[in-house]
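step 4 of 6: structure.
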Amino acid sequence: MIVRLIERTAVLLVSLAVSSVLVFAFMAVLPGDPARVALGVNASDQTVAELRRQFGLDRPLPTQYVDWLGGLLRGDFGTSYVSKAAIGPQVFDRLQVTLWLVVAGMVIALLVAAPAGTVMAARHRKVSGLALSAVSQLGVAVPAFLAGILLIMLFAVKLGWLPANGWTPPAQDPAMFLKQLILPALSLGLVQGAVLTRYVRSAVLDVLREDYLRTARAKGLRPFPALWRHGIRNAAVPVVTVLGLQLATLLIGAVVVERVFVIPGLGSLLLDGVSNRDLLLVQDVVMVLVVAVLVVNFVVDLLYVALDPRLRVGSR
Amino acid sequence: MKSYARAVALVASAALLVLTACSAGSSTTPGSSPGASQSLSIGLVAEPASLDFTTTDGAAIPQALLGNVYETLVKQDDSGKIVPSLAKSWTTSPDRKTYTFDLVDNAKFTNDKPFTAADAVFSINRVKTAWTISLKSAMDVVQEAKALSPTQLQVTLSKPSNDWLFRMTTRIGAMFSESGVSALATDPIGTGPFKFSKWNRGDSIVLQRNDNYWGSKPFFNQITLKYFKDPTALNNALLTGTINVIGAVQAPEALKQFTSNSKYQVIEGTTNGEVLLSFNNSKPVFSDIRTRQAIRQAIDHKALLDTCFAGRGKLIGSMVPPTDPWYEDLTGIDPYDPAKAKSLLQASGAAGKTLRLRLPTLPYATSCGQVVKSQLEQVGLKVQIDQLEFPAAWLTTVFKNADYDMSIIAHVEPRDLGAVFKPTYYTRYDDPTLQQDLAAADAGDEAAQVDNMKKAARRISEQAAADWLFLLPNLIVADKNVTGLPQNAITESFDLSRLARS
């Protein structure tokens, strides 16, 4: 048990270290000079060189890397090349926005997938099960941004029920916040829900074929109560794995959905940073995303053990 | 073991709680604020990267702040004429080197300091010392600026220059307070009809009416400039009432949904944005004028404009928009004639050669690039299209290193003929005759300026220094009751002070 925890923690730390190097190296080879982008089209080479020196871009790469990482560990995200503002507060401001989206998307995905997947599995030979299956297949094929555009067309432009885009912090106007959250959360959640439904279905199907479930039925339990009491926890193990992976997909999906819905989240910060060659900001945001994904996977690893006692025995 | 499961479950639910308990960012929805009847929301495309246009280039910052938060001594009116602003009047010495400005005596900065000639001297000198953007070179010609009295300013130039006074209408001429430049990137302080209120990064900039403004006060007490990366999202925001005005339409093919709806007005005028098919004149293939002329004659500009900008915009034959005093219709030079283009290419030996058309990743450049490629291939050239990410990759490759044969980009700066066609610019256009015309225009009186600029414009067109695909239109869509919107966008600023609601 403890061994597994130590082992997982070690893997997490090594992954973090390696990804920080990769993120830094990738930014370093990106074409385009941040100083020149900041100074604009007619800047002389001399002013560009001066600004590069100011940014510290003229130092050797290893020095820049160590400084950057040291800053991150101290909680200092540095100062933006472009806006000259501290990056840390910007990143956390935007992260809060994106987290709302991701969490709301995830909740919707689960609300869709758990019942739909279970019904599909229980009725997998019947017409209703097959029909649900076809619908979820369609959902898998639609990218989140397209779902977003279609939802806007229908509910905002055509029917006028919900705002087409924008963002209001919940503290400022909770009603407006919810109204503006619905469409982007749906575009993320429905698509992820469709993917998740497929996994729930196959996990439940596997469980349905198990001996212990047949025994439960033989004792006289009806199919759904039998599944509920004896099957759900077993079926949850593979689904939780997928949930972890999907959280990463949701974060990435949010980047695109934020653009479609004009939401000032981490995704739009990242895209602006890339196009302005605000490299330090991009580095920081990517690193925050990487940390988020790795930590989620770490938690998922631990959750397995909590859900499936057999894994605990095995790891001893 | 049970306790482990419980602990993990606890951690997981705690994490979820933290996630949901986070209060979200810091942006607002326009229209939901108090006094909504007196506020207006304008949708724009490019969000500024900083609020400091002295060190960050780009059109977005002056668009939002110049004329609204910052003012200049002189400004351009709708017809392009230079008219008074913070300077009530001015005189020019007979040798055209000394300008004396009489300043208004009741202007005040938003930090409560009065505007005086000392601030003007400070602002002019600061361009040379503290500004980093390349446009600052417009101030190089100033030899000395001094305050004769609190309301009188004298500026001496090292040589006569018409261009200097014109540049004083642009951001270069913005007047700053000596005690108000400590945080330009986040807290701009000027004398204008609006004061900066709030910047929700990634979303909007909010301006408040300056109730101490020395001139006539604006109608709206709050104007929100809301930024959209995606043209469809911008259109939807107007359709659903989130914004009242689309300041610059990006996708003209989507205009139909507004022209057919009586709730909206569509304004179409001109800009300073010449869309150039630029040639790298330092490449041997372009050293023969016949090749350059052939390319111009191979392009059917009308068809191109219809295809890549839905027919909106104006055809121009040189680097001058119709709002400049020296505009002439030069579209007759090198008219569309594919047969002649073919024979010119044969004669110059360029037929069959491959040219690299390196495009910035901008919608108009991408779609126009396809048309240019197909039209040039019809007359016997081969065209290889590369897409370069804009701005960063395009700036480095094409603009700085001139590693290209042809490119397509809109030059949106006002009166930029001289800046674009010179040997050190990415066009690599080396033409002493043109330089003579430009120098004569800068030094002469008003009539001489117009004459010589006409000569210069004709010269680059006849020399086929580039091809002018079209002039970007000023396209604005707004709620029907919004008044005071500019017909033409010929200055760097979006003038908010004249907007009202009928």
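step 5 of 6: annotate
 - Chain B is about 30% helix and 25% strand.
 - Confidence is low (pLDDT under 50) at residues 1-36 of chain B.
step 6 of 6: archive
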